[in-house]
Design a protein that fits this description.
Layout: H1 3-6, H2 10-28, H3 37-50, H4 62-75, H5 80-85, H6 87-107, H7 109-120, H8 133-149, H9 154-170, H10 174-189, H11 193-213, E1 225-228, E2 234-237, H12 243-252, H13 258-261, H14 275-296, H15 315-327, H16 332-355, H17 359-370, H18 374-378, H19 388-391, H20 397-417, H21 420-436
Antiparallel strand pairs: 1-2
């Protein structure tokens, strides 16, 4: 059987897909890692569990608990450190195959591959190579909610509840959004599965707090805050940040704004009234519910990191919206906007995975006890997205290959999703412009 024809067979196609995904994950292990203090703290919690101790860290213990068994298994072959370093990459392989499979049943293999690709070629590229909680939460919640909105059998829904609940428990603030969505579905559709996931996530959080602090509650955070010497409000604690300015910063700031790091999240096209469109809307709601919560939080910016990491979940609905725009554009102009946003999404992935926070920006924004850290949030010159344009490091072979690969997959997504009618309109427009000249 000729190779092109063989690849159209379901088994051969999935074997090829698996090999491609595994190869991409293997390549990402050669990319630089940009671990934060939070990542290291959670990694130490895993090691504490292995030694028989329960960590007293303020973060959720769900991620360390999920990693401890794989870590022990990897230790038996001397690869425990590799497992912790690349834990999210292993999860990403499973997530890509699961989400790709479910989406292919709903919208076809080409659309499924495009959504997985653009979800990965995004802000996620900056965090997938570290032991990052937001990345793990993204993968578990998006996969779980896809299983729930697809309304499959009982086994599928149970798996969806477990994945969604664990993903929310990894980053407990997600529980608020899950509870809102679950309550709406329970009232409107008599569908209590999403709400069950919220209850399970709350239960996990309460148990975590009970074991760690020996008290009843949902959060382990105490009084936290800092002093912003450059900003007019000075000292801020807990949810004391000025709401309006927090909201504007989360949406529009050059270093943390959602409009810059997830522009396609705000694309609005005709609703399709199918499970994929509902999945996109549910994930978007979860992101938007977190915006006013974090707008009041003293550390809404997520520390010295790449982009709005607290809202990393948004890359998935942003990818779905972008694929919808490319696949069924309402006009040639709408398609051109989709192509431009797709290309810009590729730059976001490059800036995050290749550069993250440039050394020059890191030095400026952490100097003098973080006195000028606001530069990394609000100015384009020191933002993680734009600083590489003037302060980029020399590139090694892996980084160059990553940049080339991003350009190739972005072009492939555009070419694969654009309908024939749009290509025809584009050729006609080009010919018309040529004649007028």
């Amino acid at each position: 059987m000729p190779l092109p024809r063989a690849l159209t067979q379901p088994r051969a196609r999935w074997i090829t897909t698996t090999l491609v995904v595994v190869a991409a994950a293997a390549f990402m292990t050669r990319m630089p890692t940009h671990a934060s203090y939070d990542d290291d703290t959670r990694r130490q919690a895993v090691l504490a569990l292995v030694d028989g101790h329960w960590s007293t860290m303020k973060y959720s213990m769900v991620m360390p608990l999920l990693a401890v068994v794989p870590y022990r298994l990897a230790q038996t072959v001397g690869q425990g450190d590799v497992l912790l370093r690349d834990f999210n990459l292993f999860v990403w392989v499973a997530w890509s195959l699961l989400v790709g499979w479910r989406l292919s049943l709903l919208r076809g293999a080409r659309f499924a591959a495009a959504v997985v690709t653009l979800s990965s070629v995004s802000m996620l590229a900056a965090y997938i190579t570290t032991f990052n909680a937001e990345a793990l939460s993204l993968m578990m919640m998006s996969a779980g909610l896809l299983l729930l909105v697809d309304e499959g059998g009982r086994g599928t829904r149970v798996a969806g509840v477990v994945l969604t609940a664990l993903g929310a428990a990894v980053v407990p603030v997600q529980v608020v959004g899950i509870a809102v969505v679950g309550a709406v579905r329970l009232v409107r559709r008599r569908d209590g599965w999403v709400f069950a996931a919220a209850v399970l996530a709350v239960t996990a959080g309460v148990i975590d707090v009970a074991i760690t602090q020996h008290q009843f509650g949902f959060t382990k955070y105490s009084i936290e805050g800092t002093t912003f010497e450059v900003l007019p409000w000075g000292s801020v604690q807990n949810f004391g940040y000025p709401f309006v300015f927090g909201l504007l910063a989360i949406l529009f700031s050059f270093g943390r704004g959602l409009v810059w790091y997830m522009p396609s999240l705000f694309l609005h096209d005709e609703r399709r009234h199918d499970p994929v469109d509902e999945w996109r809307r549910v994930l978007t709601i979860l992101v938007l519910v977190m915006v006013p919560i974090y707008a009041k939080w003293w550390s809404w910016y997520g520390g010295v990191s790449f982009g709005p990491r607290f809202f990393l979940l948004g890359v998935v609905p942003a990818a779905v919206a972008l694929c919808d725009r490319l696949r069924t554009p309402s006009s040639l102009r709408a398609w051109a906007i989709g192509v431009a946003v797709t290309a810009f999404t590729g730059w976001i992935a490059i800036a995050g995975a290749v550069y993250s926070v440039t050394p020059q920006a890191m030095q400026r924004c952490t100097a003098d006890e973080y006195r000028l850290e606001v530069l990394c949030w609000h100015t384009p010159e020191y933002s993680s997205l734009w600083a590489p344009l003037w302060a980029g490091d020399s590139l090694g072979p892996a980084r160059v290959l990553f940049i080339v690969g991003v350009c190739a997959v972005v072009a492939a997504v555009v070419a694969g999703l654009t309908p024939t009618a749009t290509w025809h309109q584009l050729r006609t427009r080009v010919r018309t412009l040529g004649r007028t000249r």
